[in-house]
Design a protein that fits this description.
Elements lengths: L1 H9 L19 E2 L15 H13 L4 E4 L2 E2 L8 H18 L4 E4 L2 E3 L2 H6 L9 E4 L6 E8 L8 H13 L3 E4 L7 H4 L2 H9 L2 E5 H4 L5 H12 L3 E5 L5 H9 L4 H9 L11
Parallel strand pairs: 1-2, 2-4, 3-5, 5-7, 7-8, 8-9, 9-10
Antiparallel strand pairs: 6-7
Helix pairs in contact: 2-3
Bound molecules: fe (ii) ion.
The site of fe (ii) ion has 5 residues, from loops.
């Protein structure tokens, strides 16, 4: 399957003509990474901002959003008990103010020993469901991230991925091209893909907002068929502006054409 995907993306290396690209973002259906529960992390600070940001994602065509607050013991010691009531408040406010949109509560788990502890009770984790449009496989997914300044402890990573998978969860790595230590050595991304970890990229990375190396790494991972989701990672309006920029992106055009994106299958069970 992934050889076919690679062949599709090799075309992106061909010189693009000046033709106008007009991607319809509504075909993505879902955005799967955002910080829109008000006041719980470094994302939206209040309800008014959250509703305004959700309105903008809705205007771009998204009809399902998985909202993924940080869970990181030192900085954002969130738990399902803290997040769930705030998420319900958000849902109620969105239902009052906006046209129908489906909201799901996930989380962005930081990879550390705390996460290993949390995995001892997998049913208590904030996960989200989806069906792979390529093969109809049902998945229960969990989003996780690494530190930016330091590579992960690879033994711990292997243990956590194993624990996730043996608990019936599909690991989903947040913004795989934003980690500086993967820019020169992309072999770890390949290894993660081979182990069954779903790699995702942020819209802002594809737009070059995190620099040329991050964008090149994202393209490398996409061309090799390792990336299955494009996410907004919305913290504030500029992340949504990057999603809007993808309307004219040849890379996203190829990803949509390939039929490999998981976005449209998220929220299905
Ligand atoms: Fe995030």
């Amino acid at each position: 399957m992934f050889t076919a995907i690679r062949n599709i993306f090799r075309f992106t290396k061909k010189k693009e003509s000046n033709r106008q690209i007009n991607n319809d973002l509504s075909v993505l259906i879902s955005d799967v990474h955002s910080h829109l529960v008000p006041g719980v992390d470094d994302g939206s600070p209040d309800m008014e901002t959250s509703v305004a940001l959700i309105r903008r994602l809705q205007d771009l065509g998204f009809t399902k959003l998985v909202i993924t607050p940080h869970i990181m013991v030192d900085l954002y010691p969130n738990t399902p008990e803290i997040l769930q009531p705030k998420f319900e408040e958000l849902k109620a406010e969105v239902a009052k103010q906006l046209p129908p949109i489906e909201l799901f509560l996930g989380a962005e788990y930081f990879l550390d020993t705390e996460l290993l502890d949390l995995l001892s009770k997998p049913s208590e984790l904030l996960t989200f469901q989806g069906i792979d449009p390529m093969n109809g496989e049902k998945m229960e997914m969990i989003l996780f991230e690494f530190a930016f300044h330091l590579p992960p402890n690879y033994d711990l990573l292997a243990e956590i991925v194993f624990k996730m998978q043996t608990s019936g969860l599909t690991p989903v790595l947040a913004h795989c091209a934003r980690y500086p230590y993967f820019h020169k050595d992309r072999s770890e991304l390949k290894k993660l893909h081979k182990k069954g970890v779903i790699l995702t990229v942020n819209a802002a990375t594809l737009c070059g907002k995190y620099g040329a190396l991050a964008k090149e790494t994202a393209l490398h991972a996409i061309e090799n068929g390792w990336v299955r989701m494009v996410c907004s990672d919305t913290h504030s309006p500029h992340h949504i502006a990057s999603v809007k920029e993808l309307e004219s992106s040849p890379i996203l055009e190829k990803m949509i054409e390939s039929g490999t994106l998981l976005n449209p299958g998220i929220g299905l069970s």
